[in-house]
Amino acid sequence: MDTLRGPAAIYKHEHAAVRNVNEEFQKKGTRGQRVADKVAQIVGSWPFIIFQSAIILIWMGANVYLVYMAGTNSDFFVSWDPYPFILLNLALSFQAAYTGPVVMMSQNRQNEKDRLMAEQDYEINKKAEVEIKIIMDHLVYQDAKINSLLDEIKTLKIVNDKN
């Protein structure tokens, strides 16, 4: 090791720059994957749940009202989905049959992204460990140099005091 320069001065900080996994992942995704992410984002939100609940309540309320009105007035419009709301069950089953796999695709993509982020964190931690060791070695080197200088100052002071 160069005695005039410490470990930190001779350390080469040569490694790839830290990358943004989110940006890379977004660029890498296919159209289908982006659609799956958007569907999962919408279906997994409170506005969607509230909107869907409102539609279901309106559907059921309208059909119950139409059954009641058709029972009291024979000329009234007949309910399109009377109790037990078989058409509504079919629509909800259809929705679940398609959104379930799409949400799973989005979750698989998120798992892949999490794995890449964990790998990147591991690589950064390895680099940080090496750099911290270099810094600690350099601090030890500086302590030795400072102690050497202090000893030299004491020696000069003793020689100076004798003169």
Automatic annotation (TrEMBL):
Keyword Transmembrane on entry: yes
- InterPro entries attached here? DUF1003 (IPR010406)
Mind telling me which Pfam families this protein's record contains?
A: DUF1003 (PF06210)
Return the PANTHER family for the record: INTEGRAL MEMBRANE PROTEIN-RELATED, MEMBRANE PROTEIN
**Which organism encodes this protein?**
Propionispira arboris
Please provide the record's keywords in A-Z order: Membrane, Transmembrane, Transmembrane helix
Transmembrane parts of this sequence: 48-71, 83-105
Q: Does the keyword Transmembrane apply?
A: yes
Spell out the protein name for this chain.
DUF1003 domain-containing protein
